[in-house]
Amino acid sequence: MGRGKIEIKRIENSTNRQVTYSKRRNGIFKKANELSVLCDAKVSLIMISANDKIHEYISPSTTTKQIYDQYQHIKRIDLWSSHYEKMQANLNKLKEINHNLRREIRQRTGGDLNGLSFDELRGLEQNMEESVKIVRDRKYRVIGTQTDTYKKKEARNDDPHYGLVDNGGEYESAVGQANGGSQFFAFRLQPSRPNLHDRGGYGSYDLRLA
Asked: Which of UniProt's keywords are assigned here (predicted)?
């Protein structure tokens, strides 16, 4: 009893589909090799699976490029021209994007502004103000994190060389506020007269941000 005829349509089950691909791929490669040996034909066979794996068969003592070049010569066509044109168009697009980005960087540093209109200058100003705000907010968050770390370290070690200054007091104008809240900053007391400090004296101290 012979095998039943298989209906030629897409196999929905992914496992069965992959098994069928592997079996028939090997069969095609075997036929291509037989054709190359028996008939002294140049064969180039390229297969790409559904998961983008490439399998190929090339006749012995030849390359795919040689076969393509010979095919182009016989058919009097250029297989690469359309591909080259697409690559060239993509390259030009990338060059334009790079040029615009470089110009934007120069403008953000105060250069290349002569060709901008009032609206463009105003938009650039607003963008830079927003960027400065983001940087400033990030800076205050970092300061707040460092301050919390110093406060915890103070609580554990009770280090007399560190002190906390509340910017709600007389130092408010010096250290500023972040997000409308009172911020604490850790300062280290540096002795301006080390000789007194070394001998146990108190001397005078410089107040420096730790």
From this structure: DNA-binding, Nucleus, Transcription, Transcription regulation
**Predicted confidence (pLDDT) per residue in 167-178, tens digit:** 444 433 334 444
User: What's the CATH code, domain 14-77?
Assistant: 3.40.1810.10
Tokens coding 29: 């490669």
Which CA distances in Å does 4 have to 1, 7, 22, 23?
A: 9, 9, 20, 18
Q: What is the pLDDT of residues 180-207, one digit of tens each?
A: 444 444 445 455 455 544 444 444 444 4
Q: In the chain, where does the domain assigned CATH 3.40.1810.10 lie?
A: 14-77
Beta strands in 17-85 (DSSP E): 44-48, 54-58
